[in-house]
Amino acid sequence: MRMDHVSYACESDGLAATTERIATALGVDAVRGGVHPRFGTRNMIIPLTDHHYLEVVEVLDHPASDKAPFGQAVRARSAAGGGWMGWCVAVDDLTPFEERLGRSAVPGNRKFPDGRELVWQQIGIKGLIADPQVPYMLKWEGDPALHPSLARPSSVRLASLTIAGSAERLTEWLGEPVEQPLDDVAVEWIAPRGTPGIMSVTFDTANGKVTI
Questions:
Q1: Which of 38, 125, 141, 208 has the most CB atoms around its CB within 10 Å?
Q2: Which domain covers residue 28, as residue numbers?
């Protein structure tokens, strides 16, 4: 179990403009992601060190976005003005989460222009919608060289998260101490004022620490 990525729902001016603001703040160039046909969304990627990445995601006017929980989550966060939507933990086995949540993981995919395909299974988006402090879980499948963190060399590091919520709640959700997947990513827990969830993310960049 390890921290995989953080997701930012695009703001009212769309995917390209939102991504450009974040990439400029971090002093890097973003990488074009692509469409998630099963979820009715598309994304752009900012690779980070330590096998982490940041995705900026946008909902599409597509029937899948009305049915898939991930599309629903992106739509709701963007409709509220955009911002941090959640974080994701990668695991080798989703079975314990399927058993605990009483439902099966769902497949996800994204095709590259050259025909290669990024594929995974994920679960927990409904939990994130109900309680945005909790992460969703995924299991990567296929070629590990296609992991989004490897799309471009990066010197930007995900340093810390500020989360409105509690470590106890996340430990209960994950089934083991939340400190394990976060590893060297520091977390400041603050009491929720309104909706719990990610309040900010701090990155180590060539120009010092940047908080978004």
A1: 125
A2: 2-153
